[in-house]
């Protein structure tokens, strides 16, 4: 891959990450209301997996790569990868287990709530992925002629413009700063995940070939999200011994770190593709179980331990 093509791919990742994060935040906001029966991020996971199934359909993937290879990376790794998020999903599972929101229920109900969120998210993700594949059977991308002229420099300019626009909006419009911080921080997360994906075909002795890159990205993302969440809320909000960075700008930056960087570094769409392609099936089940378990353990260590020892009455409300 030439230097210009590599930079163009990164630039289109910026575009895909910004739009994917924006779509995720919008879907979550649309599905957040009093009396909601299920975690609102499930719709972002479902829509992202639906589009991922359509994009990764063999005919569509071939057509995109023949026309302009970075376009497939932009849609699959960038847009779908950032529209879905593993870190927020597993963190919500931890919150259900620990009843952090203090619902009037006992321990068994906490377990059932966590298992319900787990099963509903995985079920919707897999069903949406297969629906996207089925859609690809009837709605295919026509084979477009490859241009004689390179679009790399144009794509680089577009990517820089989108990223700069998000940064300018973040600086000039404080009311939307939590969301614009997320848009600014989402491209680095998507880029890091793209680089880590090169580990997916690695083989570690008897462990065989597993998607280690996606696993590393998802685990690191949940660690970043939990660390930022703890920085927001741990300790007392006022008085001696109070902890945290509780100014409007710092709270917005920590939110952006969670929803932007961590949300884009982690992915459910790629995770679901891997679950449906890993063989034998016991390998897929093991991969899902280990990923989920490690994510919950990281949440316990980085959020549960400070919460139970110092409290979570910090000032970022």
Give the topology:
Blueprint: H1 3-30, H2 41-55, H3 58-83, H4 86-98, H5 107-138, H6 152-172, H7 177-196, H8 212-233, E1 235-236, H9 248-265, H10 269-277, H11 281-310, E2 312-313
Parallel strand pairs: 1-2
Helix pairs in contact: 1-2, 1-3, 1-6, 1-7, 1-9, 2-3, 2-5, 2-10, 3-7, 3-9, 4-5, 4-8, 4-11, 5-10, 6-7, 7-8, 7-9, 8-9, 8-11, 10-11
Short description:
By secondary structure, the chain is mainly α. Helix content is 74%, strand content 1%.
Explain the overall architecture.
The protein has 317 residues and is an all-alpha fold. Strands 1-2 form a two-stranded parallel ribbon. The protein has one domain (3-313). The protein is 74% helix and 1% strand. Fluoride channel required for the rapid expulsion of cytoplasmic fluoride. Residues 1-23 form the signal peptide.
Number of helices: 11
How can the largest sheet be summarized? 2 strands, parallel
Oligomeric state of the chains in view: single chain
Radius of gyration: 20 Å
Q: What is the element string, with H for helices and E for strands?
A: HHHHHHHHEHHHE
- Give the mean pLDDT: 88
In total, the number of strands is: 2
Detail the poorly predicted runs: none
- What is the 3D form? globular
Alpha-beta content class: mainly alpha
| Structural domain count | 1
Strand content: under 5%
**Strand order in the largest sheet:** 1-2
